[in-house]
Amino acid sequence: MAEDISLDGRTLVGVANDEDGEVGTETRFRFDQTGDRIHATYAGGDIAEGHLLGTFDGRKWEIRYTQINVDGETASGRSVGTVEELADGRVRVEDEWKWESKVGAGESVLEEVEEIDEIDRIDEFDD
User: Fold this and answer.
1) Which distant-in-sequence residues (6+ apart) come within 8 Å of 27 by Cβ?
2) Which CATH number do you get for residue 87?
3) Ramachandran sector of residue 88 (left: φ over 0; alpha: ψ -120 to 50; beta: rest)
4) What pTM was computed for the model?
5) What is the span of the domain harbouring residue 38?
6) Which of 88, 92, 116, 117 is deepest in the core (most CB within 10 A)?
7) Domains identified in the chain, total number
């Protein structure tokens, strides 16, 4: 059996989502993990700010999320996601979600990205 995955310190972005969802390619999730508990803050694209909290067994998560979009509308829901490690060591999540505060459900995909320090970005343009 494969070793359990940790989400602690990882940053993921949305790469696919169904039309009822608000997560997009500009949405970044920053994860913390303690034992089997996970927490993430997220924002970007249509989402001004969001938080998720749940449990994670190293391969599957069960979470609740709440967010406010750029139009000032709040929403919340739940999801179950399967987490896998890609060949390059990054993680990918296939997530089945359902709104609890409004109508809608679907599937989304998140993938890990490397964080680029703002100073490193500025240095690249100076060269």
Assistant:
1) 13, 14, 42, 43, 44, 45, 46, 47
2) 2.40.128.30
3) alpha
4) 0.87
5) 11-126
6) 92
7) 1
